[in-house]
Amino acid sequence: MKQSQVLFVGNILSEHKGTKGVSEKIVTIFSSEMHIGAVSKKANKILRFADILYTCLTYNYKVLIADTYSDTAFTIARLSSIAAKLRDKKIVLVLRGGRLPDFYKENKSAVDKVLKRSHHIVTPSLYLHSFFNNLGYKIEYLPNYIDTSIFFEKDIQRKPFSLLWVRAFKNIYNPWLAVKTLEQVLKTFPQATLTMVGPDDGVLQETKELAAKLGILEKITFTGSLSNTELPTYYSSHSVFLNTTTYESFGMAVLEAAACGIPTVSTPVGEIPMLWKAGEEIMLTDGFEPDDMAKKVEELLSDNQKWEAISQNGKNKANGFSWSQIKPRWLRLFNMDF
Question: Strands of 193-197's sheet, edge to edge?
Fold first, then answer.
């Protein structure tokens, strides 16, 4: 069996979700240049964990690179790092997910064991970088990249007063906040609309029921999941992007939106206020109040000069995360002498 330089471990789920996560994108790019492994494509969690463990114990590789999230997904890093250590493989952990600091505080012993098992730790998040460095861990900042051949502002008409939300319908992403923000915006701009993009992760029906209760269901379009190639058209045809999440370790959707020229109004969580300049590259709320988010939206909708400035500054920021900027750092990681 030909040996892989690296084995990526995480959720390789584009066949089921339609969109590729960052690790799957990196695997796809490098697969044309080297023999590289990736696991797991299983949609069922139990089958996915079993597939990861089996692959880590049997596959021929030198370096294991494991995505490390909080909660149930932390099992991926735990199982894969144990298997790699048993086989005396090099272990690189990629810290992801804005809830990881809270998860660490709740499960310090378990997380410490996994982190100390690694030979190197990287993260795309300045927020996570700061948190774990302050605990004494040596963390390398390795930001996510954006595919600028896909995510760029398309030459199409933007629909006036149109809001866009892109996330899974899950409690931590607060889809209710987008709906209630629209309710408030409609008081000033009756022609406003909202498009909500993403798969159901438990609260889609609840979100629709809220919109119906508020009497604005007809103002909202629910698209379901969209592929990476479809998203730029939505980013480029709407006026304001809403980022309503409770946690944020990097904010891939915010970066994609910026690359496509749509200004973002976001909750001030995790990575967002560290990476983006408030009032220049993004509009930040003070918290999770719909009135506050609506005011920021209305400020953009009523001030073309501010809209244009944030749009342009966002595009400039996104260019710094192109693959040509990030690729050499991944190659160095692959070939690092641990």
Answer: 220-224, 193-197, 162-166, 240-243, 264-266, 283-284
